[in-house]
Amino acid sequence: VTVATLQFVPRPGILDLGWGHPRPELLPVEPWLAAQRASAATFGWQALTYGYAAGPAPLIEWLAARTASAPEQCFVTAGASHALDLVAGLLTEPRDVALVDEPTYHLALRILRDKQLRLADASGRGRLFYTVPTFGNPTGRSLPLAERQSLVARAKREGFTIVEDDTYRELVYDGAAPPSLWELSGGENVVRIGSFAKTVAPGLRLGWINAAPSLVERLKNLGYVDSGGGVNHATALTMATFATSGAYDEHLARIRGAYREQRDALCEALDVDKPAGGWFLWLPRPAGLTLAAAERRGVSYVDGSRFQVDGRSGHIRLSFSMLPPDQLVEAARRLRP
Ligand SMILES: Cc1ncc(COP(=O)(O)O)c(C=O)c1O
Q: CB 3.0-4.6 Å disulfide test: which of 78, 94, 123, 216 passes with 116?
């Protein structure tokens, strides 16, 4: 294919548990359209001109309240991927060591490698430490409170910055999400990155950073950020409208219910523990199973090796985000030997 519209390409006959994409029916097409109209009515021409480098005030103010942070600790990005690229670029130099908490989000490994960083596991010394501590990709698990506190203390002691990828925090199905490292640290030695990709829609390319005001200043002063007047101004204003109108919380309640049902269907069919949030299951690879064999049986997943720096793993990652419960039950049947 030389041109395409979407990243995901459906393969006939395959129930695909490989992609961390939203279920198409759960994307808020009509509510977003309503927010676009309301945003145009409220902001008029201001929605269509150059914005403010850190992101427009209506979204920054909402984000600050939502993340219990100060406005000067907030910066709007084109997604969590962009946020990681930006932060890694400002906090490191090529050949520096970035520590990662394995297994971890496989594409974050690529973003860090693109910055020419050397990757190492959590036991070493490094300039930054990338982690997805809440409903993590690929495990679905969360770091316990005591380990959160000791990680924050270690960052202060050793002088590195934790990059807390908090992309899944709002997709909580049981109880409350654990406190963020950002919150526990009081805003020092931690940069938190977030996204509207999983909670609203990945196509918005909209996310955010919580960081010390001095780092936010450096982000604002990046040439292309300043040159462009922020990175996604009109969408950020629409998101502010979507959020402050209550549509965001309504939508979140709806998708939490749906993803909870999907989680329950897959976990019950496989007879495994349920993660309290997020989109993923991390399971020991069934004896003798290969991806090619699974795909011949009409089911797909991502092999665990992709989530490790050294490419070795005895696990597989299943995502329950993209398919309705009945298809997840059928996918589980196809996974059993
Ligand atoms: C942990 C994690 N971080 C970041 C991303 C990408 O987020 P965005 O679409 O906001 O760039 C994903 C998506 O799969 C993810 O799982």
A: 94
How remote is the CA of residue 296 from the centroid of ligand 1, in Å? 29
**Atom number, ligand 1, closest to the C-alpha of residue 195:** 10
What contacts 236, CB < 8 A, 6 or more positions away?
51, 55, 56, 59, 76, 206, 230
- Residue 237 tokens read as 């204003």
The answer to whether the CB of 194 is under 6 A from ligand 1 is no
**Mean pLDDT, to the nearest integer, of 293-313?**
97
Direct distance between the N- and C-terminal alpha carbons of the chain, in angstroms, rounded to an integer: 34
Cβ–ligand 1 contact at 18 (below 6 Å):
no
What is the Å distance from ligand 1's center to 337 Cα? 31
Residue 171 burial (10 A CB sphere; 0-12, 13-18, 19+): buried
Question: Which tokens hold the place of 187?
Answer: 């805003």
Which strands form 207-210's sheet, in the order they lie side by side? Answer: 74-77, 207-210, 190-195, 161-165, 128-131, 97-100, 118-121
Distance from Cα 18 to the centre of ligand 1, integer Å = 14
Question: How much is the pTM?
Answer: 0.98
145 pLDDT exceeds 90? Answer: yes
* Complete DSSP assignment for 245-270: TTHHHHHHHHHHHHHHHHHHHHHHHH
Say how far apart CA 115 and CA 94 lie, in whole Å. Answer: 6
Please give the pLDDT value at position 293: 96
